[in-house]
Amino acid sequence: MRIWIANHYAVPPNIGGITRHYELGREWAEKEGAEVTLWLSSFNHSRRRFIDDESKRELETVKGLEMCWLWSFPHSVNDFRRVLNMVSFAVLFFLAGLFRRRPDVLFASSPHLLTPFAGWLLSRLKRCPFVLEVRDLWPDTLTKMGGLQNPAMVKALTWLESFLYRRSDKIIVLTEYQRRFIAAKGINPEKISLIPNGIVVGSWESDADKRQECRRRMGVAPYQFVALYAGAHGPANALEHVVRAGEHLPEGYAIVLIGDGPEKEKLKRIKEEKGLHHVHFLDPVTKGEVYDFIDAADCGIISLADNEIFRGARPNKLFDYLYVGKPIITTVDGEIRDIIEEARAGVFSGAENPRGIADAMKSLRGLTPEEKKAIQERGRCYIDRSGNRQKLAQVLYHELRFFHRADPVKEINEAKMKH
Q1: Is 310 helix (H, G, I), strand (E, B) or coil?
Q2: Domain Glycosyl transferase family spans what residues (predicted)?
Q3: What is the CATH classification number for the domain harbouring 193?
Q4: Does 262 share its domain with 353?
């Protein structure tokens, strides 16, 4: 089966970011024998720079998986240039796809809707099924976060969102909240499948030397209890409250934030103004490295703005922390809190509450070695049950396979080849 995966923000594991689509494509190529083309941008959104040729050459060749890098307009802040970045990627994906051999299934992912729309257009021209993956609920996230207020633009994006929901042959969501949200718009629930984020089990092992090296790179003392945030530094992440938690912590504690985004310079200014020497910032790291940094910390932090739209979030870092086996502090009251409490793997600190984050850190420091070990085991059990990327890839592949089998033209051609 030939599958196209299109995601503007997809990256391979040697570059920090969204590795979900690379991992799905690799699994389908290696385990299912599929021919997978991954369409992704050569401009890295989180680092705000183009991916160099050396980084691309570092990737090992995977038989059956082709990386199709597309140029997109560079940007450093969220202004009109970011819009050009989205438009340019979608247009180049459409134009490049016109001259490629027809796929059996075209799988296009949000958050922004232009790439899926280009994917839908190509699927009609190529006469193949179109699968829409919803990573983020646009335009609702934009409007509720105050980032989009132009009535005409909101109306246009709302129409496009509804159009894609109706015209897609299948919708893949990452959270239960997203499934309910889309079904409430009149979309048949049977058309919507939940395939959450996950972990490539077996891709990482704890290493004492790497753990010590990561603590050195963090700039923390051996005696300090370290809370780690790894991820985007944008308005949606509400990291000001994480940084300000440092005001309520004594000397024996540290907060480390790894990643990049438009809010990072503002967060650094808060640190300097408040004299928070025990708050540390690091540049983004690769997927493999982030596990070592999590392992070197004492707990992980998940932070999002106190907004209804995030009640149903299940970010990548939730699965990363559970896989490594660290207790989690979450500021999000919703699906994240439910999962953490079900797995007994952490605490809810309250929304946008710096003192609550500090108190949660103090509470987790009191865990016994036996309690820490139990959290680690429960986290691994949750991953095996609900966050194993290999198992999730297999489930999704068989859903895509349905369209392959349902294509009468494909069946006729295959029958002719056999004879």
Answers
A1: helix
A2: 218-368
A3: 3.40.50.2000
A4: yes
DSSP reduced 3-state for 363: helix
The sign of the torsion formed by the CA atoms of 234, 262, 323, 11 equals positive
Q: Partners of 10 in the beta sheet?
A: 18
Does 85 share its domain with 180? yes
Task: Tell me if 252 is assigned to some domain.
Answer: yes
Question: How many angstroms separate the CA atoms of 263 and 236, rounded?
Answer: 10
Both 396 and 254 in one domain: the answer is no
Whole-angstrom distance, CA of residue 1 vs CA of residue 400: 9
Helix axes 316-324, 335-343, angle to 10 degrees: 10
Q: Are residues 367 and 260 in the same domain?
A: yes
- From residue 387, alpha-carbon distances to 54, 176, 314, 321, 337 in Å are 32, 14, 11, 12, 16
**Torsion angles phi and psi, residue 74, rounded to 5:** -70, 150
- Same structural domain, 15 and 101: yes
Give the side-chain half-sphere CA count within 13 A for 28: 28
Residues comprising the chain, all counted: 419
Same domain flag for 367 and 254: yes
Cα separation, 176 vs 179, in Å, equals 5
pLDDT at 187 (0 to 100): 95
pTM summary value: 0.86
Positive or negative, the CA dihedral 37, 42, 43, 45 is: positive
Question: Is 46 in contact with 261 (CB distance < 8 Å)?
Answer: yes
- 125 inside domain: yes
Q: Which two tokens stand for residue 73?
A: 């307009």
Residue 157 CB partners (closer than 8 Å, separation 6+):
113, 138, 139, 142, 148
Question: CA 1 to CA 261: how far, in whole Å?
Answer: 37
Residue 14 one-letter amino acid: N
- Quick count: other Cβ atoms within 10 Å of Cβ 259? 24
In a domain, 231, yes or no: yes
Residue 200: name the closest of 362, 24, 321 by CA: 24
Tens-place pLDDT, residues 200-210:
998 899 999 99
Task: Give the mean pLDDT of 49-78.
Answer: 90
8 Å CB contact between 301 and 239:
no
Strand partners, 132: 108, 171
Can you tell me the mean pLDDT for 109-118? 94
* Per-residue confidence (pLDDT) for residue 8, from 0 to 100: 95
Domain limits for position 375 = 208-386
For the chain, the domain total comes to 2
Residues 113 and 256 in one domain: no
Please tell me whether residues 256 and 303 are part of one structural domain. Answer: yes
Residue 278 lies in a domain: yes
